[in-house]
Write a structure and sequence with these properties.
Elements lengths: L3 E5 L17 H5 L15 H8 L5 E5 L3 H8 L5 E5 L6 H14 L4 E5 L13 H7 L2 E3 L3 H9 L14 E5 L3 E9 L1 E2 L9 H5 L5 E2 L3 H14 L4 E5 L7 H13 L10 E5 L1 H4 L4 H6 L2 E9 L13 H10 L3 E8 L9 H11 L3 E6 L7 H8 L27 H19 L2 H16 L5 H18 L2 H6 L4 H18 L4 H20 L12 E5 L5
The structure holds iron/sulfur cluster.
The site of iron/sulfur cluster has 12 residues, from α7.
Length: 533
C-alpha cells in the first residue's frame, strides 16, 4: 500500500501591518481592520482532510507545518506527497518544497492541487520549473483525482469529518465551528469568479442531501458548535436539493433544534425563492452573499431588492457576510463613494472587501489579456491577494482602489460598529421577531438566540468604551435598552463578565501601542488509516 503525505504550504505566512496573517479568515478578511475587536481564526485546509478520509492508502496530514515539521515528516519516506496549493500567493513556498522533495526523496511523486495551480498555466515567474518538478497536477475535484491515481473506486461515497476550528474574540473568548462540503464549482459563470472557472463553470456535487445531513448530525452530537458551514458556491440555486436538506434538518427527531445553526454561500437570485422564515425553519443561521457592486448587472443579483434581502435576513436572526469588490471597470472616482455607502446601508454582519483581481482561467483574465491591461511583467505570485493589483483599472489608479478598499472597511466599522456588535444586533432582532412563533423548530432557534444575546451582552461595556465613533456609542446605548426591554435588567454575572472584558480590552488597546506581534496559524498533524479514520 503506498504511503501518502498531504500537506499545506509551510509557515510562517506573510503578515499584514496589524500582525494578522493572510490565512486568517477573520482578521485577514471578514472582520479586518476592526481595532481590538478584530476577530481571529485559522483558515481550514479542508481538502487535505477530505482526501485523507477518502483514499484507501494510509496517510498523514500536515496543516500549517514549519519548514522543519515538513522536512522531518518527509524523511519518514513517502510514495506520494500531495501539496495543497490553496492560493497562488504560496508559489515561492510550494516551489521550495518541490525542489526539496526532488532533491532529498527523488522517488516520491508530487501531486499539486487546489486553486493555486492555475498559476502553472502562466509563464512569467518560475512556473516552468515548478511544472517540471511535479508529477501530477489536479485541476478540479481532488478526491476523485487521488482515488483514480491510487486505483481506488472513484464513485465510492464521500466521508467527511474535520477537526474543529475556533473563532477568537478579544484574545480570550473562543467558539468552535466546523465545515462540510456539499458541492464545488458553480454554473452561474460570473466573469471574475475563479472558483467557478476552476470547475469549468459546472457544479460538482459530492454528497446527497441525506449524506450531508448525516455528516452534519455527527458534528451536532459531538459538541455545541457556534455554526457549521456548508461549502457549495450557491447552495440555494438547486432549490430541490436545498429544500430536501431543509426537510431532513427540521424533521429529524434525534437532534435538538437548538443546536442546529448552519451557514452557506447564497446569491440574491437563489435566495429570492425563499422567505427568511423558511430559511430559519431549515436551520440557516448565516449566509455569505456576493454584493459585488450596486452598479453590477450580474444575473446572480437579479430577483428581490438586495436591501430587502439583507433586512429580512437580519430581522430573522440570520447573520450575513457581504463581499464587495472595488475596481470594476464601471467604478470611477466620482461614483465609488455612493457604492460604498450602499454596502454600509446593507449592514453586513461581516464583510470581505477586496480589489478586483483577475485570476488565470477566468473570462476576466482572458479579456484583460486581450485588451493588453494585464501587468504580468515583474509580477510575483506572492503578491497576489485580495488587496493587490495586477491590471490597469479602467478609471482608477491602483492607489485609489486600495484607498477605497480601506475606506469601505473604515466606514463599515465607524458607522455600524465592530462585527461582534453587528452579530449581537442581528441576534436581538431575531429573538424579537421569532419569540412568539409557534413552530417547535423555530422555538429551538429562539432559545439559542436568547443564550447568545446574553453572551454578547457582556461585551457591550468594552465596545462602548473603545467605540470608534459617537454613532457606534449611540448604537450600543440603543441595544442596551432593547436588551433590557426583551430580557429585563442584567444580573451580576453579566456585570462581572462585562468588567472582565473591559479590562481585557484595555490591555489589548495598550498592546496596540507597540509593534504588532505576527500571528501564525497553529500546526496540526493527523494520521489516517486508509479506512476513513
Ligand atoms: S454566483 Fe458566485 S460562485 Fe457562482 S460564478 Fe458567480 S461569483 Fe462565482
Amino acid at each position: 500500500m503506498p504511503k501518502v503525505l498531504l500537506t499545506s504550504a509551510y509557515k510562517p505566512f506573510d503578515t499584514f501591518a496589524d500582525g494578522s496573517n493572510m490565512m486568517d479568515l477573520y482578521a485577514g478578511r471578514l472582520a479586518k481592520n476592526q481595532d481590538i475587536f478584530t476577530l481571529e481564526c485559522d483558515y481550514p485546509a479542508m481538502p487535505l482532510y477530505l482526501i485523507a478520509q477518502n483514499i484507501s492508502a494510509p496517510s498523514v496530514v500536515l496543516e500549517n507545518p514549519t519548514w522543519d515539521d515538513f522536512t522531518r515528516e518527509l524523511s519518514r519516506g513517502y510514495d506520494y506527497v500531495g501539496i495543497h496549493f490553496a492560493a497562488s500567493l504560496f508559489f515561492d513556498r510550494i516551489l521550495r518544497m518541490c525542489r526539496y522533495i526532488k532533491q532529498h526523496s527523488p522517488q516520491t511523486k508530487i501531486v499539486l492541487g487546489s486553486y493555486g495551480v492555475v498559476c502553472l498555466t502562466q509563464n512569467f515567474q518560475e512556473e516552468q520549473e515548478l511544472r517540471s518538478l511535479v508529477d501530477h497536477v489536479c485541476y478540479g475535484e481532488g478526491v476523485r483525482f487521488m482515488r483514480e491515481l491510487l486505483g481506488d473506486p472513484v464513485d465510492a461515497p464521500i466521508r467527511q469529518h474535520f477537526p474543529p476550528y475556533y473563532v477568537r474574540a478579544l484574545g480570550v473568548v473562543k467558539y468552535p465551528f466546523n465545515n462540510l462540503v456539499s458541492a464545488l464549482g458553480c454554473n452561474a459563470g460570473c466573469e471574475f469568479c475563479a472558483t467557478s472557472a476552476f470547475f469549468k463553470y459546472k457544479k460538482v456535487r459530492l454528497v446527497s442531501p441525506a449524506e450531508l445531513w448525516e455528516a452534519m448530525k455527527a458534528y451536532l452530537k459531538e459538541r455545541d458548535y457556534a455554526f457549521l458551514w456548508i461549502f457549495d458556491e450557491d447552495f440555494f440555486a438547486d432549490e430541490a436539493y436545498a429544500r430536501e436538506f431543509g426537510r431532513l434538518v427540521r424533521s429529524d427527531p434525534e437532534v435538538n433544534p437548538e443546536r442546529v445553526l448552519w451557514g452557506g454561500f447564497a446569491s440574491v437570485r437563489a435566495l429570492s425563492r425563499f422567505s427568511a422564515e423558511e430559511l430559519v425553519k431549515m436551520g440557516v443561521g448565516a449566509l455569505w452573499i456576493g454584493i459585488e457592486s450596486k452598479y453590477s448587472a450580474l444575473p446572480k443579483r437579479m430577483g428581490k431588492d438586495i436591501q430587502q434581502v439583507f433586512d429580512e435576513l437580519h430581522n430573522a436572526g440570520i447573520t450575513t457576510i457581504g463581499s464587495f469588490i472595488v475596481g470594476w471597470d464601471f467604478h470611477t472616482p466620482d461614483n465609488i463613494s455612493e457604492d460604498v455607502d450602499h454596502v454600509v446601508r446593507l449592514n453586513p454582519t461581516y464583510s470581505q472587501i477586496s480589489s478586483l483581481m483577475p485570476c488565470p482561467g477566468t473570462r476576466l483574465w482572458k479579456r484583460l489579456e486581450e485588451e493588453g491591461r494585464l501587468r504580468t511583467q515583474g509580477f510575483r505570485w506572492k503578491n497576489f491577494n485580495l488587496y493587490s493589483a495586477m491590471h490597469e483599472h479602467a478609471h482608477m489608479t491602483d492607489e485609489q482602489v486600495f484607498f477605497w478598499v480601506d475606506e469601505t472597511m473604515r466606514r463599515l466599522f465607524y458607522t455600524n460598529g465592530p462585527s461582534i456588535l453587528r452579530t449581537y444586533e442581528v441576534y436581538l432582532n431575531g429573538y424579537r421577531s421569532l419569540k412568539d412563533n409557534p413552530d417547535p423548530f423555530v422555538q429551538g432557534r429562539v432559545r439559542r438566540l436568547r443564550k447568545w444575546c446574553h453572551i454578547y451582552r457582556s461585551g457591550l461595556l468594552a465596545i462602548k468604551v473603545f467605540a470608534p465613533s459617537d454613532a457606534v456609542r449611540k448604537k450600543v446605548d440603543r441595544m442596551k435598552k432593547e436588551h433590557a426591554e426583551l430580557f429585563g435588567p442584567v444580573g451580576p454575572a453579566i456585570w462581572c463578565k462585562s468588567v472582565i472584558l473591559l479590562l481585557v480590552a484595555a490591555c489589548l488597546k495598550l498592546r496596540r501601542k507597540f509593534p504588532p506581534r505576527p500571528r501564525q496559524p497553529r500546526f496540526r498533524r493527523f494520521e489516517y488509516n486508509g479506512a476513513g479514520a
